[in-house]
Specification:
This protein has 254 residues and is mainly alpha-helical. It has ten helices and no strands. The longest helix is centred in the first third of the chain and has 30 residues.
């Protein structure tokens, strides 16, 4: 019983921290939650816990933006490709779970994704996508994002860098990320339900996780007014880099 209580406290603290990061930066809830939860559980089990907190916070984020329909029209090829990529990942994960070391390679992919995201964030690297390139680069980014989400439960790579490269206005960018992450979360939920990982118990636990996540978001919004966002972002990306290195080390040494 004491072990179960410790697990509940750990999960609650993870979602408080993940919600705080999203409150300060506008993103990062699923990334932080999955990265920390996988210290105690497989990536897709962690992903099942974040479905409700991620869906609610992302819908809130996209609904607060200025122009949802034009963004939907512009990003529709990418969003549809996210669903395709997640479906492809369902096949890969099913095959990997049937083989020895399936959990290890899933953890390795998660570690590499966190390393890439953390390194890009710390480097401050920015790129721009020409309008003529969106026709093929958007679907490519969507397929890769969906595939990584289906394997790791994290859906920021390469969607977040791609959206940042579209030269959107600040409010449009926040709304675009909310839209992309909402579609990614729903596609992931369908995949988990298909695999039997999204059931009544998982849904109930995910609903409970919304409470500490919301509390963390409120704390993060309070902190955003009292600290330099640039400093917080550097700490955030440095932490992802460390967690990614830990995931890779554990995957390749177990």
């Amino acid at each position: 019983m004491a072990l179960m209580d410790t697990s509940y406290i750990f999960i609650a603290l993870v979602f408080v921290l993940a919600g705080m990061v999203k409150g300060v930066t506008g993103m990062g809830l699923p990334t932080v939650a999955v990265a920390l939860l996988t210290l105690k559980m497989p990536p897709l089990e962690a992903a099942a816990l974040l479905i409700v907190p991620s869906s609610v916070t992302n819908v809130w984020q996209l609904a607060a933006g200025p122009a949802l329909y034009p963004l939907w029209r512009r990003l529709r090829p990418m969003l549809l490709a996210v669903c395709v990529g997640t479906a492809l990942a369902a096949v890969l994960v099913g095959a990997g779970n049937g083989a020895r070391g399936g959990a290890a390679w899933s953890g390795a992919v998660l570690g590499l994704a966190l390393l890439a995201y953390g390194a890009l964030g710390l480097a401050g690297w920015r790129w721009q996508v020409a309008p003529r390139s969106e026709r093929w680069l958007g679907p490519l980014a969507g397929v890769v994002t969906g595939a990584l989400a289906g394997v790791t439960g994290v859906f920021v790579m390469p969607a977040a860098p791609y959206l940042q490269a579209l030269a959107l206005e600040k409010d449009d960018l926040v709304q675009a990320m909310g839209l992309a992450f909402t579609v990614s979360t729903l596609a992931l939920a369908v995949m988990l339900a298909y695999q039997g990982a999204w059931h009544a118990a998982a849904a109930g636990a995910s609903c409970l996780a919304l409470l500490p996540a919301a509390g963390g978001m409120l704390l993060g919004q309070w902190l955003r007014e009292r600290m330099a966002p640039a400093l917080f972002r550097r700490c955030f990306f440095a932490s992802l880099l460390a967690l990614g290195a830990h995931q890779c080390l554990r995957a390749f040494t177990d």
